[in-house]
Amino acid sequence: MNITVIGLGKIGLPLAVQYASSGHTVVGVDVSPRVVEQVATGLEPFPGEHDLARRLAEVVASGSLRATTDYADAVPGSDVAVVVVPLFVDDEAQPDFGWMDAATESLASVLTPGTLVAYETTLPVGTTRSRWAPRLEAGSGLREGVDFHVAFSPERVLTGRVFADLRRYPKLVGGLSAEGARRAVEFYESVLQFDERPDLVRPNGVWDLGSAEAAEMAKLAETTYRDVNIGLANEFARYAETVGVDVAGVIEACNSQPFSHIHQPGIAVGGHCIPVYPRLYLWNDPDAETVRAARARNAAMPGHAADLLRRVHGRLDGQTVVVLGAAYRGGVKETAFSGVFDTVAAVAELGARVMVHDPLYSDDEIASLGFEAYHRGEPADAVVVQADHAEYQDWYDGDVPGVRSVVDGRRVVDAAAWPSAFVATIGDGTVTARLGQAVAASA
Questions:
Q1: pLDDT digits (tens, 9 = 90+) for 175-185
Q2: I need a surface site. Which of 129, 131, 179, 271 has the fewest CB within 10 A?
Q3: Has residue 148 got a pLDDT over 80?
Q4: Across the strands, what pairs with 148?
Q5: The dihedral of CA 344, 354, 333, 261: what is its sign?
Q6: Residue 344 burial (CB count, 10 A)
Q7: Does 254 qualify as catalytic in the annotation?
Q8: Which of 132, 120, 103 is nearest to 19 (CA)?
Q9: Which position among 10, 171, 219, 254 bears the catalytic label?
Q10: Rounded Cα distance, 154 and 122, in Å
């Protein structure tokens, strides 16, 4: 097949490589000339995706994949056009369709009969049918379901492990018509390979959910579930701190029973997915109070961590506090909705000078995020662990001369390695209970 992939970002580019590796001819379209130039030379434009560099170089060298900024060079005559363009959510939880509207209109202007258009960007329920199909028809003069077909198939992968996740999870699809669904199933079966999954109710592979709306809702539901689950875990963590219980042991005990699957609490929920897609769900279902409450609880955790630091450390006026981790999660160079922003703001509000360290970011990159860079070995008064980078497991109090307080938001550090500091972990009420005893004794 001739396949066009629109959007060569952290998901779109691995998808293009996967399709080309499966024996098809792929053209990637992106608005960034820099990205297109790097892809055209076989160089990955962003680091951190496992096996992407090798596989990209191979398919570019073989001629199976090329890149362009020109829709007219890529789309006409394509059997399939896959759209993986970002959709953003503003501070009021309203979806911003700007980039996707522009991509859809550019695609429509050069769409030719016989093409299957598959949207993979996570969307509010009903968007594929009510927004994209009419725009494609208006811009092309063609009829959906007759001249071309549209389907929705959400990406279900995490950056850093895209190729493994493509094999691991069923590919969900939903068409706007039975023929569109049939073509989508046929397409994805030809470009994906799946691992055996005896734990699933049906064989791993491409699953037709019956409609685009069902596929749209499936992606929102699975991600919203995680946000709500983490929100519940954070509720348990905050309560455990008040009653002298370590929530980690409680969760481990609960999850020993097969009907309990409590997630882990922590300082923040970041990334492109978990903090964003519940807002898209709320846009569809504004009465979903459980979802709204969980989102609010998770959004409040950086402030809770700052308050815990104040209780551990005392007054923070004039103190230097280091936040470890700018990334939203360990091992991934990405700050989308990272907890670092709210954590720094909350600690700064208490009067501290706040510095940020991240092994994946240069000083200039830290500065571009609006932070002052910290270097291992410089003195500071307190530490807040925001990202679970593996490097932080090896840090000890000598790495931060003068430190006397640590709030571990990710259960990363070894408290025994920080004997000069009081180490408090979110959800560990046994530590905060000792803090209360120490305060009482000093009084």
A1: 999 999 999 99
A2: 179
A3: yes
A4: 144
A5: negative
A6: 25
A7: no
A8: 120
A9: 219
A10: 6
